[in-house]
Design a protein that fits this description.
Elements (H helix, E strand, L loop, with lengths): L8 H30 L17 H9 L3 E5 L2 H4 L7 E4 L7 H8 L5 E5 L3 H7 L4 E12 L6 H6 L2 E9 L5 E5 L4 E8 L2 E6 L15 H9 L4 E5 L23 H19 L17 H14 L3 H20 L7 H12 L3 H9 L6 H19 L2
Parallel strand pairs: 1-9, 2-3, 2-9, 3-8
Antiparallel strand pairs: 4-5, 6-7, 7-8
Length: 380
């Protein structure tokens, strides 16, 4: 006769339906949060970030002055509509040359490049060049007649500087290299800003930084805040014009799948549950175990081992009753017990530490004497 050890289908369903329901709810919640957060930008220079490197304070300042700020990480959304708007392109990411050309050929009225790359300058701000000089952080006066800079006054700037053509307006520099450049090209106004930290939450309140940011970015009622987040094939080949290796939307799916795998791993992982009592096949009483061991001792004539077990049990009771350490020397044990019971120390030493009995009657006598001694301890 065989017994099935596996679960039936109904038992398995009853055991798994609750974990499956909880896992489904958690995964669904994560997906909803990811989709809801997809419209929000993140990272350095993000208008939604309250970190020191973020620009949430600047976005709130612009909105307080009637500028509608729209953040995006998708180039298609950024290029959707340009007429009568300002496009801000944050630092970071990697765009192909063709992407910068699309931006340059767009119908934007005003483009603001924050710490742009050489490729971006060539396409959108021709004639502006990256300088090898890095401006140290300090408060600087505009040094130009750009209205936005003149109204702002001094500002704390640092970082990348640029050289500009004669047709451009160069501000906040050392006389040769400057960190704010404005030029008119292709029917649009282009501002190049090399000091990105000037507009961040950490430094917006310094000097005239807030006024400078508001004057530069608040020229139109609509501002598209574009953050290039994804590296394209242009990082390997500047002339490549294929699609990105990893589409941006894939990251949300990947995060959801990774979280689902984590939840399943926790659910299916080995863990300790409550202690489950199991019935013993045979119940053996303690008295029967003691008698069985005694019979084995008697059959093998192991009087020495039987006497040692009796003396060990008696010593344990004596040490507990008189507060004697378990590792105490025999002399100390005998002296303490003799002082408290009035027995002869020599007889106590022979009783507790003497030679094993020579026969069964001697073993019975030893057991009787040890019982009497422990009874005296219990009932002095």
């Amino acid at each position: 006769m065989s017994t099935a050890l596996g679960r039936s289908g109904s038992e398995a369903w009853r055991a798994l339906r609750l974990p499956m329901l909880v896992t489904g709810i958690v995964v669904l919640g994560v997906l909803v949060l990811l989709i809801a957060g997809a419209a929000r930008t993140s990272g350095p220079f993000s208008p939604d970030s309250a970190e020191p490197s973020g620009t949430k304070a600047l976005a709130a300042l612009l909105e307080d002055h009637g500028v509608d700020v729209t953040g995006t990480e998708d180039l298609k959304d950024a290029l959707g509509s340009g007429a009568g708007r300002t496009l801000l392109i944050a630092p970071g990411g990697s765009l192909r040359r063709s992407d910068w050309e699309r931006i340059a050929n767009g119908s934007w009225s005003h483009v603001v490049l924050i710490r742009p790359t050489t490729r971006a300058l060539e396409a959108v701000a021709p004639g502006v060049r990256n300088s090898s000089e890095t401006l140290p952080k300090r408060s600087r006066s505009p040094g130009c007649d750009l209205p936005a800079a003149v109204k702002a006054g001094t500002a704390t700037v640092a970082g990348v500087s640029y050289s500009a053509p004669d047709s451009a307006i160069a501000c906040y520099g050392d006389g040769i290299n400057h960190t704010v450049i404005r030029l008119e090209t292709g029917g649009k106004t282009v501002d190049v800003v090399g000091s990105s930290r000037t507009f961040t939450n950490a430094e917006l309140a310094d000097d005239g930084n807030a006024a400078l940011a508001l004057n530069l970015l608040g020229t139109h009622s609509d501002l598209v805040w574009y953050l290039p987040q994804y590296e394209s094939s242009s990082s390997r080949n500047s002339d490549a014009d294929g699609p990105p290796l990893v589409p941006p939307d894939v990251r949300y799916i990947a995060w959801a799948l990774a979280f689902a795998a984590f939840v399943v791993a926790i659910w299916r992982g080995r863990r300790l549950g409550p202690v489950v009592p199991e019935p013993l096949p045979v119940i053996v009483h303690a008295a029967e175990t003691t008698e069985g061991r005694a019979r084995l001792y008697r059959r093998s004539r192991a009087r020495d081992r039987a006497a040692a077990a009796l003396r060990e049990s008696a010593l344990g009771k004596l040490q507990k009753a008189h507060g004697i350490p378990r590792r105490a020397e025999p002399i100390a044990v005998v002296t303490t017990v003799a002082a408290r019971t009035g027995r002869d120390p020599a007889m106590l030493f022979e009783l507790l530490y003497g030679q094993p009995p020579a026969d069964d009657s001697g073993l019975m006598f030893l057991s009787h004497q040890l019982d009497l001694l422990t009874l005296e301890v219990r009932h002095p």
